[in-house]
Specification:
With 244 residues, this protein is α/β, with parallel strands linked by helices. The protein has a domain of 52 residues. Helices cover 36% and strands 26% of the residues. It is built from 9 helices and 10 strands. The strands form 2 sheets. It has a 6-stranded mixed sheet, with helices on both faces. A 4-stranded antiparallel sheet has the order 2-1-4-5. Strand 7, helix 6 and strand 8 form a beta-alpha-beta unit. Helix 3 packs across helix 4.
Length: 244
């Protein structure tokens, strides 16, 4: 069953074509990755999926609903982990979750129960009363992941979930995401870490200049391009360094 279906999706920013006539489907319970250099259109495509902006042309449906017609219903069933740190620095770790729960009309008592469960899940329970300013970068990323799970989403959208994390923290987040996959949560992510994509993604779409240049499982892409790893495939198809 396809959770997300995009057909001829195009997005302009003034005269810039950020997404150029792409089509794809994302299946229930799948981890799907968008890979590509900065400016390839990855974040724009995901932003349209979670109803942050409308497409210029083409269609995108999520849970069988058009993103331009029923955005509120779609948003209630998804969780979003943005690339930027947008936590409220005036609040504690626990308070950030409680305040965010209001967006989903979660009753205060239940919000508290869910917040404690999620803090335990991301290994931040002992930091509940700590102000955001006193968290490390890795702790902030874990908290943003916890926040994206407050409404028990059926679809989780992650934009560069482990950027800036040390190897231990990165592997910890991978463990959390693999657990969510085992619970049949559908995951869409962008990443510049090819090892991350190989470990987590069932399929990836490699984008360049707004277009999808390849879409398949990491294993089949490596086999098709006679490559030893996904990074080799990425470099051949985009002609870019990973840091671009």
């Amino acid at each position: 069953m396809s959770i997300v279906i995009a057909r001829s999706l195009t997005k302009y920013y003034n005269s810039l074509k950020a997404v150029d006539n792409i089509s794809f489907e994302i299946n229930e319970g799948e981890c799907f990755g968008f890979l590509g250099p900065n400016g390839a259109g990855k974040t724009t495509a995901m932003s349209i999926i979670y109803c942050f902006m409308p497409p210029t042309s083409g269609t995108v449906s999520v849970f069988g609903m058009d993103v331009t017609e029923r955005p509120s219903e779609i948003k209630s069933r998804i969780g979003v982990m943005p690339q930027d740190d947008n936590l409220d620095v005036e609040l504690s770790v626990f308070e950030n979750l409680i305040v965010y729960a209001r967006y989903f009309d979660i009753p205060k008592k239940r919000a508290s129960q869910v917040a404690w469960r999620l803090l335990e899940f991301v290994e931040l329970k002992d930091k509940a009363g700590v102000n955001i300013r006193n968290l490390s970068g890795g702790m902030k990323r874990k908290l943003i992941l916890a926040r994206s799970l407050l409404n028990d989403p059926e679809l989780l959208i992650l934009d560069e979930p482990t950027t800036g994390l040390d190897p231990h923290s990165r592997h910890s987040v991978w463990d959390k995401l693999n657990y969510l996959k085992s619970m049949n949560t559908t995951i869409i992510l962008t990443t510049h870490y090819m090892e991350e994509a190989e470990r987590l993604c069932d399929r990836v779409a490699i984008m360049n200049s707004g277009k999808i240049v390849a879409i398949d499982t990491p294993a089949r892409l490596m086999d098709t391009h006679k490559a030893g790893n996904l990074e080799e495939v990425y470099l051949r198809l985009t002609g870019r360094r990973l840091a671009d």
